[in-house]
Amino acid sequence: MPEPYWTAERIDGVVSERAKTLGPAVWAAAQPEARPVISFAGGLPDIPSLPGEILLKAARTVIDREQKEALEYGGTFGAYPLRQAIAERSSAIEGIPVAVDQVIVTSGSAHAIGVVCETLLDPGDTVLVESPNFPGSMRTFRTFGAHQVAVPMDDIGIRVDRLEQELQKLADNGNRAKFVYMIPTHQNPAGCTLDLQRREKVVELARRFNTFVLEDDAYGELWFETTPPPSIFALSNGDHGIKVSSFSKILATGLRMGWTMGPAPLISRMATVRYDMGTSPFLGRVIAETIRNGDLDRHIQNLRKIYLRKLERVEAALERYCSGYCTYLRPQGGFFLWLALRPGLTSRDVQQAANERGVVVGQGPQFFADQQATNHLRLAFSYVPMEDIEEGVHRLGEAMAEVAARSAVK
Amino acid sequence: MPEPYWTAERIDGVVSERAKTLGPAVWAAAQPEARPVISFAGGLPDIPSLPGEILLKAARTVIDREQKEALEYGGTFGAYPLRQAIAERSSAIEGIPVAVDQVIVTSGSAHAIGVVCETLLDPGDTVLVESPNFPGSMRTFRTFGAHQVAVPMDDIGIRVDRLEQELQKLADNGNRAKFVYMIPTHQNPAGCTLDLQRREKVVELARRFNTFVLEDDAYGELWFETTPPPSIFALSNGDHGIKVSSFSKILATGLRMGWTMGPAPLISRMATVRYDMGTSPFLGRVIAETIRNGDLDRHIQNLRKIYLRKLERVEAALERYCSGYCTYLRPQGGFFLWLALRPGLTSRDVQQAANERGVVVGQGPQFFADQQATNHLRLAFSYVPMEDIEEGVHRLGEAMAEVAARSAVK
Hints:
The structure is a homodimer of 410-residue chains.
Chain A: H1 8-14, H2 17-22, E1 38-40, H3 52-71, H4 80-94, E2 103-106, H5 108-120, E3 126-131, H6 135-143, E4 147-152, H7 160-172, E5 177-182, H8 196-208, E6 212-216, H9 232-235, E7 241-246, E8 258-261, H10 264-273, H11 281-292, H12 295-321, E9 326-327, E10 336-341, H13 347-356, E11 359-363, E12 376-380, H14 389-409
Parallel strand pairs in A: 1-11, 3-4, 3-5, 5-6, 6-7
Antiparallel strand pairs in A: 2-8, 7-8, 9-10, 10-12, 11-12
């Protein structure tokens, strides 16, 4: 049998500029680990509460009631009943009227962000990105050839003075930002939630500089005890805010379903540029049914309690095993603790020492556009089984102690 | 309340070049018609045989057996058990060994074709396209800035002499085609199936000119009495053929699930360029279960009988009501009859006269890259209820008679 002509090297020679930017590395599914690992790495939902029965019940109802509509094409905006259910539910949550034509269904929020890029970005366009941030989104912006300008955050969130400076600088050069990308609520990785005053300032800046705020809200509904301030989308009256949301964290990442709300003419353009003929109307109608029958809201209420318990357990363990080595701000929701290591400890060293003890955490540099060295670690407390939390943080503490001892010797 | 800032006009001013190419028109879901219509327009599956119960049964099994894997991220290649089931099943169908790393799962074949474009195309690249062809694919090529060269077909399919000429012409100019797009089996819209001799010639040309054949096989498994020749993918030993397939026509368009097979290094690049974090592992595992438990194959056998019966009914009605006005070649499978109208009848006139009688058909020009005027109509016989076929063709015959009478008067 002849050798195949299309080797990896030959393929490298013919791929698009976009594919070249990305390189050959692939994000496949997690491989089974050789030894048991306690993972604080991925922003994944709690396993025991996964809503299989809720989905099966809704699927049964959908097939009985509307099999034809569920199993036929549903258009590029997504299944109408889901858009309708989202619009109604969001009107209540956001406190502004949200119309169906302001809603588009996507394959999760990652896809939504990609479709926003397809709709708005040409190579060389500028986007502003709060920093640190979610690496997956920064990767997407990069592959669309965007010039990313990092805007720093403090403990409250994005620094609006620096945001104004950057927007003004662009305007002075006759340029503009296509959008400002931020995660104002339960930020990934930093865990902080932007206060109302800064949100209002962000909206004012978006208006003044005629740009959009691309508001990633994957974690917004997962607050623990305090409801977050109104969204940028709501504060802009649905005009300058593009809010990207997902069913991944409130139902299941394995559905690949999310939605975006924004100005109707922009949503319409997003429906046009996609080439996937829309997201599954079957899954869309199943999720619409979980909204209608109240299961989604009940499930979210349950998740809030579960994640608060996990956070409390992580906090207790951090207090016991890591208190000399790091500090953090308590998040009001979401999946993440952003640990600031004490001077002398680098995230790289601690991550490695933790790995050797069978504990995985997210390392700081991946969350910065310039991959700068940091003394931060991201601890996702959502996925790890309740009973493994103490042991995992215990080992993390040992790793910190070891690195501290080594650095003291030097 | 102030007027919204982001009007359609302002949005038009800030969208990407890609969005500008597409314009604001949107393909939404079919709107309910004001009066009952008999539709031969869309390539949609038969309604009464939609497999809701098959899917629910498989979903129950998947949730019971593997809820965690089904409801978590599954990676950008798609759920592993589905890739495995596709590789095994395809090895049997194709007659060559197909490995798991040659398979990627996508949101239907439309999405697969888009991902191939993302992976291979830069603006200005050339693709060859058999003509007539599926408008959705030509639209996608256009939005990626591809230069499309039409290669004509005859009753057997693509003219390989003309294909060779075009490839040679490109080579003479130091250029090359990134791929040749074709639907060799039960072609859309023409209904023809390329014979083995020409398929072998296509593979030989792809090898000689170092290009790919992007083989759209949405309808390949829906043969009626004659199994089609081996695919281009199989004949090229999986090396120069990229075969794009879909569960849309053999299960349901509402799943938005399909798959692509090709050289492993190219499949790997496709997994990298997509930004949707993969297709739903829940749906993927549900479909894998329908393959494993035999339901998919049984369903396809049932569909072959249904579509053959519909074809026979359409043929009988055409014989009765339209025989003086058009001719066609009998398709060996798929969803479409490609009617050649007799001289003097244009597709536009007949379509309009049919519409006035409550019958919808696909008009010829949309299937040509240059939208040239034609005397062809596409009749999709798959979707229309069995009991409406005779009445629909009857009205179409009246429409043809009316247009013929009008043109005789002129």
